[in-house]
Design the sequence.
């Protein structure tokens, strides 16, 4: 997992978190590759992917946060569900939320939304959790 995320953890110096609301500011983890659509947030930054890891905040992560991320135009939202050992992949954002939801278990492979970043085997991601 560390190798997978390392490719997407280099944000430019001085870059501020994406502001989705007064109290919700996810930290930036990647710059937009040139071949993907660039969604500008209110401060001029780009966010292509938000990853939430949850053991108990499912209602908030699937509800309010998902709607905020989608309304902000963030193309991909992953929710790593620790108790269910699954990853929910939300895509196709709109003003009322994401239109597409796929739930993947440990037997699946998670495709990266970033060109040049390898797929992630979910059994490796969820190993030891």
Sequence:
């Amino acid at each position: 997992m560390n190798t997978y995320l390392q490719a997407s953890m280099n944000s430019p110096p001085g870059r501020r978190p994406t502001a989705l609301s007064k109290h919700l500011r996810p930290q930036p983890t990647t710059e937009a590759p040139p071949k993907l659509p660039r969604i500008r947030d209110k401060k001029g930054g780009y966010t292509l992917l938000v990853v939430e890891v949850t053991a108990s905040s499912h209602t908030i992560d699937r509800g309010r946060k998902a709607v905020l991320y989608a309304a902000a135009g963030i193309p991909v939202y992953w929710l790593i569900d620790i108790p269910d050992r699954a990853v929910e992949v939300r895509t196709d954002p709109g003003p009322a939320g994401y239109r597409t939801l796929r739930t993947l278990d440990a037997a699946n492979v998670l495709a990266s939304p970033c060109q040049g970043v390898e797929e992630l085997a979910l059994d490796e991601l969820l190993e030891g959790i």
Observations:
- Confidence is low (pLDDT under 50) at residues 1-17, 28-37.
